[in-house]
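Handout, section B. The chain below has 297 residues.
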Amino acid sequence: MKEIEDILGKDNIMYNEPMSKHTSFKVGGPAEIFAQISSEDKVKEILKFCKENNIKVTVIGNGTNILVSDKGIKGLVIKYIANDMKIDKETGIVVCSGGVLNPVLAKILLENELSGFEFASGIPGTIAGAIYMNAGAYKEEIANIVRNVKYIDIDTNEIKTLNNKELGFSYRKSIFQKINVVILEVELKLTKGKKEEIQEKMLEYKARRISTQPQDYPNAGSTFKRGNDFLTAKLIDEAGLKGYKIGGAKVSEKHAGFIVNTGNATSEDIINLIEYIKKVIYEKYGKRIETEVRFIK
């Protein structure tokens, strides 16, 4: 579409782009229009155009916690890739664009001897994605270190800022799961630390991930949320579902909380396996389990 090319530049747009190239599950049909945007102003301009022309907008981060339909996505898919960063070592205040990757941010914070983000060093998504789902690991979560989030409301095209208390954080949830936004900028508050201690913690977490999580097959991280009074992965394991397959989708034999793509899975395979697991766990234990993965169609 020429108007979109005029706004964003032809080099930043792809048509009928397979979403399997942009998701860690390596599945998903084509995006009608796929755009990488690194400018706040361009986001605002393209959202205005899409609203005026009734074009559906879908926002993704690094594609590490999503499952896209085999039929693909209509309209415009926006991947916000801005990666600006400001760090104040004295105050521990870090301001970064929503497109900054968590592992990249973790390494920079290590160099600046700022602690509090170590738990996220192995979470492969963007900081915006971490905010969206209140990402966490090792009894820590992003909610603990966020001060403010600046975003643009897709429906109104207004730029707004919310503080921590207004962000509606709870286990794997934030207010952004209820409103359509592009997260533009995040302000974090970290603490001064010693480089050796920060690095030691990051290496410890890395070793734990390697030993307990599947690294050899495409996946979207932990597929299921923890229950209020139970560990979902433990129930899946006890139900004998480790290694269970539907098509190319399989319950990881290394960690029952992960579904992996063995090489030829479709999105439908993964969805069918998720639903089968939900059914078995409910029938065996009377527990309803929820997914962490975000479904996009």
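Note. The chain has three domains: 2-80, 85-211, 214-296. Compare this with the example in section A.
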